[in-house]
C-alpha cells in the first residue's frame, strides 16, 4: 500500500474529523445527517492514520512528501530538465 496523504494533509484531516464528530455529537445535527457526519469523520480519521486515501488514488492525487532529488547547490534551470 503506497501512501498518498502528506503530513499537512493528515493534520487537516484529523482536525476536520474531530470537528465533524463534535458537531454530530451535539444536538445541532441529528438523524441521518449525524450518521453521515460520523461516517465521513471516520473516513477522514482512518485515512489520516494509515496515510492512504482511496479517493486520492482514483483522482491520481499525491500529497505525500516524496524524497527530493534537488539539492541546494544545484541549478534547477540548467537545461537538463525535461520539457
Structure, explained:
The chain is mostly helical and 83 residues long. The chain has a domain at 7-59. It is built from 3 helices and no strands. α1 runs antiparallel to α2. The longest helix is centred in the N-terminal third of the chain and has 19 residues, at 7-25. The protein is elongated and about 60 Å long. 13% of the residues are buried. Residues 1-65 form the Inner membrane protein YgaP-like transmembrane domain.
Short description:
With 83 residues, the protein is mainly alpha-helical. It has helices at 7-25, 32-50, 54-59. The chain crosses the membrane at residues 12-29, 35-59.
Which short descriptors sum up this protein?
83 residues; mainly alpha; 3 helices; elongated; DUF2892 domain-containing protein; transmembrane helix; membrane; transmembrane; YgaP-like_TM
Quaternary structure: single chain
Mass-distribution shape: elongated
Total of helices? 3
Approximate strand percentage: under 5%
β-strand number:
0
Q: Estimate the helix proportion, in percent.
A: 40-55%
| Low-pLDDT residue spans | none
Average pLDDT score:
85
Radius of gyration: 19 Å
Distance between the termini: 31 Å
Q: Structural class, please?
A: mainly alpha
Order of helices and strands: HHH
Largest sheet: none
